[in-house]
Design brief:
The complex is a heterodimer of chains A (88) and B (236). In chain A, 14% of the residues lie in helices and 30% in strands. By secondary structure, chain A is α+β, with helices and mostly antiparallel strands. Chain A has one domain (1-88). In chain A, 39% of the residues are buried. Chain B is built from 3 helices and 13 strands; from the N terminus they run αββββββββββαβββα. Chain B is of the alpha+beta class. In chain B, 34% of the residues are buried. Chain B is globular. The chains are: A alpha+beta (88), B alpha+beta (236). The interface between A and B is large, with 63 and 97 residues. Strand 2 of chain A pairs antiparallel with strand 4 of chain B.
Chain lengths: 88, 236
């Protein structure tokens, strides 16, 4: 039991979307989602210190519309479309 | 070893078939003919018919069909029944995840929205929900020390024009859930705040206890062996 809990909790957190009837049956009114955006705003490397997150795809992706206008990565930004990747 | 490092090469096969690098951001508009990217993740086996990109009459959207179970589930929940959810891993300490939603729930308790989800026992949502006939925004969290549920009627402009939902890791300790008009033209209003300790639950405690118990057992075995070996030598 302890071990299975430890394994389960090794999962990270997801950011996502969902739809449910809260127990009133499968199906029902569909939901239409659009403009899915996930932008990192910093990777903590020490107390109060953040390494900038990438602000664009390392390699252009099918279906990825690229950098959303008006949402620069903070703090610092990663250097734009191609310069966003920083190897350690 | 000396000399310049080889030039950076990111053109590995997986990237050309729909796989982003782990630190990359997302901006997906779900155009007709596109598919969900490889790094999008389901919870439970997905009922694929519940996830449709750009269905007829709704181009540039991802259509989700509600599941009976919500993200928390219930005691009689059968995992194979599925939970309509699609997400991506949190890959940054701080992040902003947002999405626009058009949803007209006709029956009470029909709900769709945005979530920070770890497991069924630890998750937080901000959704559009039909509360006894009133289109409402509901923030709800499930887990240890979960904050109180917040329900408020949705402004008519958002009912008519759609809503934007957002979850943000705003600092080292908290997720903030906000809503605003679709398209982001206008201010976002914060409805909920969750301590992210809820998303790690009792991991460190349980793990430490298991680990310490293991050491105690090991010590006892060693002491027992030493004692027995002494006992053996003394009888010889």
């Amino acid at each position: 039991m302890e071990i299975s809990c430890a394994n389960k909790h090794a999962l990270g957190t997801f950011a996502g979307i969902y739809a449910t009837t809260n127990g009133n049956g499968e199906g029902g009114t569909p939901a239409y989602f659009s403009n899915w955006r996930y932008q990192g705003n910093g990777q903590a490397i020490d107390d109060g210190q953040y390494y900038p997150s990438n602000t664009g795809p390392t390699v252009p992706q099918p279906g990825d519309a690229g950098q959303p206008v008006g949402q620069p990565g903070k703090p610092g930004g990663g250097g734009g479309w191609w310069g966003g990747w920083h190897g350690w | 070893m000396s000399g310049p490092l080889p030039p950076r090469n990111v053109n590995i096969p997986i990237t050309s078939s729909g796989g982003p690098f782990v630190k990359d951001p997302d901006f997906y508009t779900f155009p007709p003919g596109s598919t969900l990217p490889n790094h999008f993740t389901f919870w439970r086996f997905p009922h694929t018919e519940n996830y449709v990109v750009s269905p007829a009459g709704h181009p540039n959207t991802l259509q989700l069909t509600p599941s009976n179970a919500n993200l928390t589930g219930f005691p009689a929940f059968q995992p194979l029944s599925g939970q309509t959810f699609v997400g991506r891993r949190q890959t940054d300490t701080l992040f902003t995840f947002s999405i626009d939603l058009d949803f007209s729930p006709s029956k009470t308790e029909e709900e769709a929205g945005i979530t920070a989800f770890q497991v069924q026992e630890a998750n937080a949502e901000l959704g559009v929900v039909n509360v006894n006939g009133t289109r409402s925004l509901r923030f709800r969290a499930n887990g240890a020390n979960a904050p109180a549920t917040v329900v408020q009627a949705m402004p008519q402009a958002w009912v008519d024009g759609g809503v934007r939902l957002q979850v943000q890791a705003i600092n080292f300790t908290h997720y903030a859930f906000s809503a605003g008009p679709k398209g982001g033209n206008g201010g976002m209003q914060q409805l909920g705040l969750v301590d992210n300790a809820m998303m790690s639950m009792s991991f460190s405690g349980k793990f430490a206890r298991t680990f310490i118990a293991g050491i105690l057992v090991s010590c006892r075995v060693v002491i027992l062996l030493l004692w027995r070996s002494r006992a053996l030598t003394s009888t010889l």
